[in-house]
Amino acid sequence: MEERHEIPERGRGWGELKEEMAAMRGDDLDWRSGRHGAYVWYANDDLEHVLQEAFGMYLVENGLGVRVFHSIGGMEREVLAMVRSLLSAPDGAASIFTSGGTESIFQAIYAAREWARATKPQITEPEFVAPHSAHPALNKAAYLLGLNVQRVPVGDGYGADVETIRAAITPNTIGIYASAPSYSLGIVDNIPALGGIAAETDLWLHVDACVGGVLGYFVRRSGREVPIYDFAAEGVASISADLHKSGFAAKPASTVHFRTHELRQYAAFAFDDWPHGMYGSLTFTGTRPGGAIAAAWAALNYLGKDGYQGLADTSMRTRDRMIEGLTAIPGVEVFGNPPLYGFAYGVEGMDMRKVSALMTARDWHCPNTVQPPGIHFMATPVHEGAVNAYLADVRECIEEVRAGSGVAAAEARYN
Question: Where does 120-190 have alpha helices with state H?
């Protein structure tokens, strides 16, 4: 379809537009059939309907105006309190509702910078120390905030190497960054050990639990062993946890939590030197979609703990079947010991990009990891019915790459 570059002279009816939009989606990723390794968190059609209805009810309202949209403010407070209850938050903890993991991480790093300015004025070139597995949002925030990031090698199990982190701390260090889990490989860093270092050296420890923060609680609740990654660990100053990932809420929705209200205040911005008087905000964005807050509130209340437990159990059951099937393929290794629903796998010495390209030709989306070379997969309930098909296709694709057949076509598609 030819792209349009001007607004049409006359408006068109919704029926016509809806039909055209449906046709436009024809070549999109078939995530409803579980043919994706990332991007989409989907529970079921019933929840999707609830999210659409809740979001639509607050489509016009602005989440910036909680002083006039009291219902949005009330829902936001409840959502933040509910998520804090999953993170072992102490009395006095405080939170912010954001547009996504990147904004949550930005607000945490911003708060850390302002905290350091207030408590460590001698530091003029502040930096964060992070394992190489840290999400790029850390560097994005640091770039915008004028901070440096020192990434250090991970340990043998692909998680943060505690002693390497300790050795990298300098007089300019203001904070440590950890993942729960790392996005690429699904590894939960040793948060208690890193928290001990942060407490001992008076540093800010941020835990990126954007993927694990909500559903990880229920994975542990089912009896599985999940490392401590929340405020139960000493020294954790802030935690980011997405609602539009393992909270199965509508996008854009994330949260960032601070051990104390005082620490959250460092994330605030205030300005009054303009004609409108005082402007204050706890978020990077100004206008915020009220629908995202309403949909998050609806998701948490509609699912309840029993609903989230079911989603966690299904996700982990799917993950187990996938890992069992993958490791039965000669040469395939799952990297490290990922305790949640995300993981990555590869074959030593094989260019896994070629495998991904062959899988793409079969209408699968298989995002690659680079260090180590592999394929990333995030198991969700929608994948449960796709496990056997995925395993059969990836086995054939690995065998094709190993034999050299189909490689030219794979490379052409990849490049």
Answer: 137-145, 162-168
Q: In what order do the strands lie in the sheet with 173-179?
A: 94-98, 254-258, 236-242, 204-208, 173-179, 127-131, 148-152
Cα(23)–Cα(294) distance, rounded to whole angstroms?
A: 30
Decide: pTM greater than 0.85: yes
Angle between helices 290-327 and 70-85 (to 10 degrees): 30
Instruction: Enumerate the β-bridge partners of residue 369.
Output: 374
> Tens digits of per-residue pLDDT, 303-352?
999 999 999 999 999 999 999 999 999 999 999 999 999 999 999 999 99
Please tell me which residue, 181 or 67, carries the higher pLDDT value.
Answer: 181
Cis before 289? omega within 30: no
Q: Which residue in this structure is represented by tokens 């409803």?
A: 32
| Amino acid at position 218, single letter | F
pLDDT tens-digit map of 4-39: 889 999 999 999 999 999 999 988 888 888 888 888
Q: How many CB atoms lie within 10 A of CB 38?
A: 15
Answer whether residue 1 shows pLDDT above 80.
Answer: no
Residue-wise pLDDT tens digits, 181-203: 999 999 999 999 999 999 999 99
3-state DSSP call for residue 257? strand
Tell me the two tokens of residue 127: 């930096």
User: Domain map of the chain by residue range?
Assistant: 53-300, 304-414
> What is the C-alpha separation between 95 and 231, in angstroms, rounded?
13
**From CA 300, how far away is CA 308, in angstroms rounded?**
9
Contact 310, 376 (CB under 8 A): no
| 304-414 homologous superfamily | Aspartate Aminotransferase, domain 1 (3.90.1150.10)
Q: Average pLDDT in the 363-369 region? A: 95
Q: List % helix, strand, coil for the chain (3-state, nearest 5).
A: 45, 15, 40
Between 263 and 27, the more confident residue is 263
Nearest to 325 by CA among 313, 314, 317, 337: 317
Token pair belonging to 364: 């699968």
Amino acid at 170: T
DSSP letters spanning 161-207 = -HHHHHHH--TTEEEEEEESS-TTT-PPP-HHHHHHHHHHHT-EEEE
For the segment(s) 53-300, the CATH number from 3.40.640.10, 3.10.300.10, 3.30.200.20, 3.30.160.250 is 3.40.640.10
